C-alpha cells in the first residue's frame, strides 16, 4: 500500500474536530487532495510538523490534532519527539508514513531503515501501536486508525508504506491563504 | 534594569499564555519567574527552530506564545523563519539575548555571532529593538504593534543584566 492510499483511507476518520498538520512535499499535497479542507499544509519548515502539532494541541485541547509526516521529516525533527514525550498532550496523534526515501526530491534513501521505531517510542514513553506493515497486512489499517484516533493519550502510528507512483501538483493555495482558511475554520 | 515579574505581567496582560525556547543565562531570572507563573506556561524546546514550530502551531490554534533564546539560536532558526513564520505571516515575539557584544576571551563562542546578530536580523527582514532601561514598556508596545499590524516576526534584543 502506498502513502497516498493510506492518507485517502483516513477520510472517514476525519471530523470537524480533527485538525491535521501535514509535512511538506507529497504528504501535504496528498492531504490537500484526499482529505477534508482546510488543514495545515506545510510548504517548507522540514522537520517541524511535530512541533507545530504540539503547539496546536496545546492551544486547542478540545480538538484532536493529527500530524501526518513522512520519515524524512520525522527524522529531521526527532528531538521534538523528546519534547512531546515530556509534555504528552492527550489530543496529539502522529502518523509516520515510512517509505524509507525522500520521495518528493527524487527517491533518495533516508536512514529510516536503521531505526527501530517501537523501541524509540518506548524509550520516549510515548504510546504506539506497533509498526504496521501494509505490504504484509493491509487489512489492519482501518483498525489501527480507529485505535490511534480514539486513544486518550499522545500516540504514534508508524506505517511502512510503498513508494508513491508519482508526485502530485503543488497545493494551489498560497501559504497566507492556508493560514487564514485554517484559522477561520476552527 | 527590568524586573522579570513586570515583564511577565505585561505579557500576560497582552494575552500571552505560553512561552517556549532554549535558555540563556541572561534569562535566568525571567525563566525562574515563568516557572512560578500560573498565567504563562513554558515549554522547554530542544532547539530554537522547534520553539518556532511550537509557537506557530499555538498561534494557528488562536493563542499567543512568545519565545526566548540566545542569539546563537538565530543561526539555527533560518528556515523556520523563512518557510514557516514569515511565509505564513504568523506574528511572533522573540526575546533574544545579545551575547558577544564585546570581545570576550572567556566566551569566544559568542563573539562571531555577536558581531553579526543585527546584520542577520536585517537580512531576514526582521524588525528588532534593544530593550533596556525605563522605557521598556514603550519598546514592547511598539514591537507588538508592529508584530500585529504586519503579522510579522519581531525581535527584542536583551543585553547582559538588562532583565533581573
Provide a compact summary of the structure.
With 186 residues, chain A is α/β, with parallel strands linked by helices. Chain A has helices at residues 3-9, 26-34, 49-59, 71-76, 78-87, 117-124, 141-150, 175-185; strands at 18-22, 40-41, 64-70, 92-98, 101-102, 108-109, 127-133, 155-160.
Report on the structure:
The complex is a heterodimer of chains A (186) and B (164). With 186 residues, chain A is an alpha/beta fold. Chain A has a single domain, classed as Rossmann fold. Chain A is 39% helix and 20% strand. Chain A contains 8 helices and 8 strands; from the N terminus they run αβαβαβααβββαβαβα. A 6-stranded parallel beta sheet of chain A has the order 2-1-3-4-8-7, with helices on both faces. In chain A, strand 5 (101-102) and strand 6 form a beta hairpin. The longest helix of chain A is centred in the N-terminal third of the chain and has 11 residues, at 49-59. Chain A is globular and about 40 Å long. Chain B has one domain (4-158): Thiamin diphosphate (ThDP)-binding fold, Pyr/PP domains (Rossmann fold). In chain B, 45% of the residues lie in helices and 20% in strands. A 6-stranded parallel beta sheet of chain B has the order 2-1-3-4-6-5, sandwiched between helices. The model of chain B has no long low-confidence stretch (mean pLDDT 96). The A-B interface holds A 19, 21, 24, 40, 42-60, 77, 79-80, 82-83, 86-87, 175-176, 178-179, 182-183, 186 and B 18, 20, 41, 43-47, 49-63, 65, 79-80, 82-84, 87-90.
What are the main properties of this structure?
heterodimer; A: 186 residues; alpha/beta; Rossmann fold; six-stranded parallel β-sheet; two-stranded antiparallel ribbon; globular; B: 164 residues
What's the arrangement of secondary structure elements?
The complex is a heterodimer of chains A (186) and B (164).
Chain A: H1 3-9, E1 18-22, H2 26-34, E2 40-41, H3 49-59, E3 64-70, H4 71-76, H5 78-87, E4 92-98, E5 101-102, E6 108-109, H6 117-124, E7 127-133, H7 141-150, E8 155-160, H8 175-185
Parallel strand pairs in A: 1-2, 1-3, 3-4, 4-8, 7-8
Antiparallel strand pairs in A: 5-6
Chain B: H1 4-13, E1 16-21, H2 28-36, E2 41-44, H3 48-60, E3 64-70, H4 72-76, H5 78-85, E4 92-97, H6 111-124, E5 128-130, H7 136-150, E6 153-158
Parallel strand pairs in B: 1-2, 1-3, 3-4, 4-6, 5-6
Amino acid at each position: 500500500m502506498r502513502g497516498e492510499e493510506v492518507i485517502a483511507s483516513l477520510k472517514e476518520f476525519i471530523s470537524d474536530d480533527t485538525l491535521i498538520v501535514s509535512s511538506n512535499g507529497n504528504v501535504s499535497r496528498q492531504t490537500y487532495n484526499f482529505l477534508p479542507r482546510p488543514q495545515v499544509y506545510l510548504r517548507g519548515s522540514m522537520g517541524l510538523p511535530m512541533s507545530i502539532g504540539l503547539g496546536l494541541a496545546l492551544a486547542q485541547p478540545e480538538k484532536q490534532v493529527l500530524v501526518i509526516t513522512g520519515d524524512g521529516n520525522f527524522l529531521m525533527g526527532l528531538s521534538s519527539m523528546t519534547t512531546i514525550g515530556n509534555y504528552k498532550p492527550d489530543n496529539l496523534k502522529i502518523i509516520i508514513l515510512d517509505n524509507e526515501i525522500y520521495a518528493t526530491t527524487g527517491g533518495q534513501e533516508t536512514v529510516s531503515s536503521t531505526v527501530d521505531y517501537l523501541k524509540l517510542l518506548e524509550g520516549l514513553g510515548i504510546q504506539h501501536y506497533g509498526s504496521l506493515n501494509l505490504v504484509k497486512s493491509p487489512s489492519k489499517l482501518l483498525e489501527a486508525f480507529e485505535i490511534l484516533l480514539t486513544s486518550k493519550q499522545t500516540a504514534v502510528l508508524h506505517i511502512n508504506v510503498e513508494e508513491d507512483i508519482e508526485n502530485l501538483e503543488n497545493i494551489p493555495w498560497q501559504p497566507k491563504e492556508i493560514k487564514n482558511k485554517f484559522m477561520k475554520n476552527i | 534594569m527590568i524586573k522579570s515579574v513586570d515583564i511577565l505581567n505585561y505579557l500576560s496582560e497582552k494575552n500571552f499564555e505560553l512561552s517556549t525556547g532554549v535558555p540563556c543565562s541572561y534569562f535566568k531570572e525571567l525563566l525562574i519567574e515563568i516557572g512560578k507563573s500560573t498565567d504563562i506556561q513554558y515549554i522547554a524546546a530542544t532547539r530554537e527552530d522547534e520553539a518556532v514550530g511550537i509557537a506557530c502551531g499555538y498561534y494557528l490554534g488562536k493563542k499567543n506564545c512568545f519565545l526566548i533564546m540566545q542569539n546563537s539560536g538565530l543561526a539555527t532558526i533560518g528556515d523556520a523563519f523563512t518557510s514557516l513564520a514569515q511565509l505564513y505571516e504568523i506574528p511572533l515575539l522573540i526575546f533574544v539575548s545579545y551575547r558577544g557584544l564585546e570581545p570576550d576571551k572567556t566566551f569566544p563562542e559568542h563573539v562571531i555571532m555577536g558581531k553579526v546578530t543585527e546584520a542577520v536580523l536585517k537580512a531576514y527582514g526582521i524588525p528588532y529593538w534593544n530593550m533596556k532601561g525605563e522605557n521598556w514598556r514603550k519598546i514592547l508596545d511598539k514591537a507588538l504593534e508592529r508584530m500585529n499590524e504586519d503579522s510579522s516576526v519581531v525581535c527584542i534584543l536583551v543585553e547582559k543584566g538588562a532583565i533581573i
